[in-house]
Design brief:
Layout (H helix, E strand, L loop, with lengths): L3 E5 L3 H10 L7 E6 L14 E2 L10 H19 L5 E9 L5 H7 L12 H4 L6 E9 L1 H13 L4 E5 L2 E4 L4 E4 L4 E3 L2 E4 L4 H9 L13 E10 L8 E5 L2 E6 L4 E7 L10 H12 L4 H9 L1 E10 L7 E4 L4 E5 L5 H17 L1
Parallel strand pairs: 1-2, 1-10, 2-6, 4-12, 10-17
Antiparallel strand pairs: 3-5, 4-5, 7-8, 8-9, 11-14, 11-15, 12-13, 13-14, 16-17
Helix pairs in contact: 1-5, 1-9, 2-9
Bound molecules: flavin-adenine dinucleotide (FAD).
Amino acid sequence: MQKKLAIIGAGIAGLLTAREVLKSDLVDECVLFDAGDFAPGCSMGSTAVINRSGIQRGLSPLGDLLVDSYFLAVTYFKENPQPGVEFVPHLHLATESKRHSLFKRFSHQGVGELPAPFADLFIDSGPVFEDQTLLIAPEVFLPRLLTELKTDARFRFQKTLVTQITPAGDVTYASGESQNFSRVILCLGGSRVAWRESFFKGFDKRDLRVTQEVTGFALSYSGIDLGESSFCFSLDQKNFIYRSQAREVWLGGTGQKRGELCPDWIELKEQERTFLNFLKPHYKAKFLEASKTVRGGLREKGQGRQPWMAPLSDRVFEIHGLYKNGYTLAFSAALKASEWLKS
Ligand SMILES: Cc1cc2nc3c(=O)[nH]c(=O)nc-3n(C[C@H](O)[C@H](O)[C@H](O)COP(=O)(O)OP(=O)(O)OC[C@H]3O[C@@H](n4cnc5c(N)ncnc54)[C@H](O)[C@@H]3O)c2cc1C
């Protein structure tokens, strides 16, 4: 019997899963479905920083998964250096409210003062912790990954809206037509929530864990020159990302509104104000003049922020709830899905 695999959803989770599966001879055919032309979901609107925020193993199961995923990503990008992906310095600012948790997480890396180039840009702001981070440009990395997948004769991308699946691997398309696959991997991202009732036919409802989808938005400024090196500067959960090649700054990590895909301007404005107050006056003026764009998407929180990467039946596996760390966690999720295929 031919081993036919359907992966539904061509965001970072679906693309990395296809890449992982095709490394071996687990399948004869792998079809990646997406309702849109190409990754129209959260992955394209993401700031896509891959890091572990100083987290060490042994703090929590989610922390351990993040650390493992981070190292999987580091290994992959070190072995496959490519445009749109950079290893950059990452500075975490110890604000009063986060000082305790940062000291705990970064104790092994010590504490310091603002090094160059940060000292030239930002006002002196107390203790900081230095780390390394991977910066991904989604619009460069995702299409490149899809192009690479297409070089494998077993792989096919199909632009189709999937409307229903069953535990036996029957996949129904918007046209009404159905097809059976020996295995199905679901990587639906935030849209899974909207689909839950009509999409899953014949599954035990207890297995379809309820999640919550929340918006996430980032503000980007173009034509900002902060030097030749990219970097990331963090304040609590929020990031200030400078991409030197594109001469862009992104302020990420905003938005927690449920459901509706519409930016929360008050939150974005607040974030802008907070970061700009840390910039030296000369640079602050540049930001006020720059043209701004908003990008974003729907993230799924999982249950209690716990992602899941588990089978729903013998033939169907689901990756879901990747939330804020979807670029990082997708590496572990892809590995788990490919291990399940061997079972
Ligand atoms: C502003 C912002 C900043 C972020 N910053 C970071 C960060 O710095 N680091 C980090 O690790 N993560 C970050 N995230 C989170 C991360 O981007 C997401 O967790 C991740 O992209 C989710 O990927 P996914 O593949 O699970 O889902 P998605 O990218 O949403 O992909 C799901 C795909 O499934 C398709 N689909 C859904 N239903 C169907 C159907 N029925 N039929 C066919 N196709 C379907 C959709 O069209 C979509 O393309 C951020 C997110 C946002 C919005």
